[in-house]
Task: structure prediction
Amino acid sequence: MTQMTPEAMAAELEALRAKNIELLAEAKAAKTTAREAQAALEAAHGERDAARAEVRAVRLDAPVEAMLDRVAMPGTADVFAALFGRHYRFELGESGPVILTADGEPATLPDKDGTRPANFTEADVYALVEACPSAGVLASVTVASRATGCGASGSRGGIPAPSGQPAQPVEPAPSPYGLK
Result:
């Protein structure tokens, strides 16, 4: 083995110190880059979560809230949602809101061919209310059918629709007993 001179050893020591400083600077730069990347990732996750929440609010929450306002008695939408939520839930499907059972399966209704998936319509929500075990309780906070027309429940029952002319006062028939 060859002996190194003190000057050569000092030069090699300086070269190692310089390399050490260079490696420490690279490590510090890598840590800074990693921290910046982590911060950017967290910001992107925050933006993604905000976008998902906005999509959910527009495509699911608003239509469900509007549906509940139409189906539930005024001021009872939250009670209806809690009672209905014991058996069914609303989720965001590919084409909009869908109704699932509490177990996560698609809600079904009887059909002439067996069963069919329940659609996100007032009629299907009413049908699910009638079919669920809590139908009596749900009926107390559910708006009755808004069906109109001849034969619809709640229609005027054979009374002709008012025409554009004012009604003539009807004179009562004279009493057979002579009393007024």
Q: What stands out?
A: Residues 153-159 have pLDDT under 50 and may be disordered. The radius of gyration is 38 Å. The chain has four helices and four strands. Residues 69-139 form one domain.
